[in-house]
Fold these 2 entries.
Entry 1:
Amino acid sequence: MQCELCGRECNCRPAIVDGVKMMVCPGCMKHGKAVVISSQVEPSRKPILERIKRPKQKDVYKDMDKELVSNWNEIIKSARQKKGLTREQLGFKIGERTVTISKIENGDLRPSDNVAKKLEKELGISLFEEVSGAPSYMTGSSSGGSLTLGDFIKKE
Ligand SMILES: [Zn+2]
């Protein structure tokens, strides 16, 4: 390969000379700027991520085939009491204010879809029922007890 600047036969390398990419010999390299070889990673500019403003999520009940049970406030209250939690503690666990829990338990405030799901998870309850008409007990989870009768008999 010939150097494009001096014409000398050489082990030419690509370089930018006066803004033009050329194959030049090491001797001529100093006239130009060496082209960045692929192994050298150029610090790439990261595009500034545009913050996408999300619209506040509205209740999505209408998009679901499940509906909040009619006595949700009673279910929440009794479940919370069974767990031995105060309204403050429950509110803290699910990231809601105590007054919100109180309102929900009094039936003054219908829990949002998001809050209802958190309550379900935290209290181990089911607040939604199928609109299709399937009884709620059909969908209930069947978690087995930890102790069986056999455990007691073996002790004998
Ligand atoms: Zn040269």
Note: Helices lie at 26-29, 72-83, 87-94, 98-106, 113-123, 136-139, 149-155.
Entry 2:
Amino acid sequence: MSNQQPLMQPIDARAACIQLGEDLSWLEEHTRRQPDLAAQAAQLRLASALVRNTVGPYLEKQAPTPLHIVVVGGAGSGKSTVVNFLLGSIVAEANPQAGFTRHPVAYADANRNDAWPATAGYLGPLQRLSQPTPSNLDEDVYQLRRITPAPGFSLLKDFVLWDCPDMTTWAATGYVPRLIEVCGLADVIVYVASDERYNDAVPTQFMHLLLEAGKPVVVVLTKMKAENASPLLEHFQNEVLRKLPGRMAALLAIPSLSPEELADPAGKAGRFRIPLLNQVSVLGDPPGASRQRTVRAAMHYLTSGADGFLSVARNDLAALEIWRALVVSGQANFDSRYYKEYLSGEQFHRFDEAMVRLIDLLELPGVGKFLSDALYVIRTPFRLLGKLLKKQFSRPESPQMPERPVMETALNGWLDQLRAESLRRAGQHPLWDHLAKGFESNLPEGARKRFEELFRELQLQQANEVDQIARAIYADLEKNPGLLYSLRTGKLALDVAAIAASFVALGLGHIWWNVVVVPMAVSMTQALVEFFGKAYVDGQREQARRRQQALAQRFVSAPLAEWLLQWPVSGGSSFERLQQVLQRIPASIQQLQPVVNDSIQSRRD
Ligand SMILES: Nc1nc2c(ncn2[C@@H]2O[C@H](COP(=O)(O)OP(=O)(O)OP(=O)(O)O)[C@@H](O)[C@H]2O)c(=O)[nH]1
Ligand SMILES: [Mg+2]
């Protein structure tokens, strides 16, 4: 045992394996819906199969034996024939009909009687057949045939041998995923290619995938004329293997055999069988090390491939990114319409009241009030004149739309724009189909309902906000007696100076003119004070408008945008699951790695 503490409880590791296997499978299914991503779907299937069939059982302390040999290759390449060679007797159905074997068939030693692994999710969706069945049954099943080996050396002492369907195409569905599921289990791969089809694209890509996943691969070339065996091996080495990652464990040839040799692999064809047996059995010796290599390689494939696995979601993420951009630009339109059509025309009459309060504050209190009143009386003729002129020249205020309908219209505009874009893009990606359907059903209603809630919240916030700014106009001054005193005396001094100046200017000779000039002078000082007061209040009013806009953004348009952004990725849609899966896959792999390392170090088998 290692002296390190396991970083995760066994039950957590088990749960993490199950979750990771399910997430990778979900992403594989999701990827299969895009036909041009069939090869990536295969990678994902292999990744999930490695988790289910290699990493998971290892963490559950499964014994290293039996190891698994998996025979793969193109249709009719001779896989079932090679299985019979490895077993030394004719048990697998070799058949001239290419693509005969349709589900994986496992051969195990009847004498070993190992309990068949029962870890969670073992072999994924493949159901084990309970009855002996021909290998051409085309269903998501596998079968286990326990056989009694002929006397002498038997691979089945340490191995289970799998005969598999072909992988001539990356067919979106069908039997290829069954084959990949079993490859996730493999400790050794035997790759069979016939002389006519040794360079087929898909089988070669498949071998590439297996080598990337760190599987030891023994290549068997079949059916060539005996004299062509060496040149073909050399040619294959140069043309095919050289371009692949990693190194082959072994490369050998079984030339075209006579029916008699085919019928007697252990006897008449023994000279071809023995080298093959040697190459394969050495890879399982000792079994503990072999299994450890399988697990390490699986973990390496998972950790180094994580980014690649997620790249299948590139199209999905790109579509989501476009949706985000559309929603955000709609939000900007909404905000600017709200400002132009409502806020810019809003006068905030609370500010007019604040202005009156401010000017009132500048009047003298107590005894001084008599003086203020006197000045007020003196200003009377010009005040009346001013009012009259203002009435004559001021334009009537234009009728203003109330806030709510403005926002509702802006929201409708926003939704219409998004609906049009989604319809336009429908067919390009499932996201747009999902959104287009949403716009035809419950999306607009949901958005309006959300708007109602947000608008109520905004109103509560606004009432406080505008009041506070307006009140601050005079409240600040009230709280600052020193400043208030200076402003009042300043204003009085201005009035007194104006009166004095008129007396001095007119002199004693025209003293009666003062009846006209003094009221004019004190009216001018008042106008001056009101002018500055108004400029200040208008500044505050503009600031209130900006604050109001910020509030509307914070309480209405930003949460609405968030709601719209989330719509396709919530409510149990596949995009919701996609986002979860994309986050969880790398996290689970990272979580599992130290647990697997710890387990490898602590095992001594
Ligand atoms: N004459 C001769 N026939 C062979 C040889 N190897 C394989 N065959 C025949 O080729 C055919 C296909 O071989 P299988 O072993 O069934 O090939 P497979 O790869 O399992 O094929 P599928 O399961 O259909 O993908 C069978 O009829 C075999 O008998 C050989 O060396 N010589
Ligand atoms: Mg076959």
Note: The pocket of guanosine-5'-triphosphate (ligand 1) is lined by residues 73, 75-81, 94-96, 98-101, 166, 222-223, 256-257, 262 (CB under 6 Å).
